[in-house]
Structure prediction request, 71 residues.
Amino acid sequence: SLTPGGVIRRDETVFRLALEHAPPIPLVMVLSGGYQMSNAPVIADSILNLHQKFSILRPHGLPATPSARRV
Prediction:
């Protein structure tokens, strides 16, 4: 069983290791159903932490990398 802090550290570790790999390993984060309402703040806190550390959130429609942009 993970504590709320453990969930945040786990997610951060996965993202850090994938992004530090050469070349970076692509990641997809899927928010599946089945969570209890009491878990929503932990999931939100983890996503916000990932954004603060790795800038994972972008405005809708903006490509993930400059190379992914359409020409």
Summary: Helices lie at 4-20, 40-54.
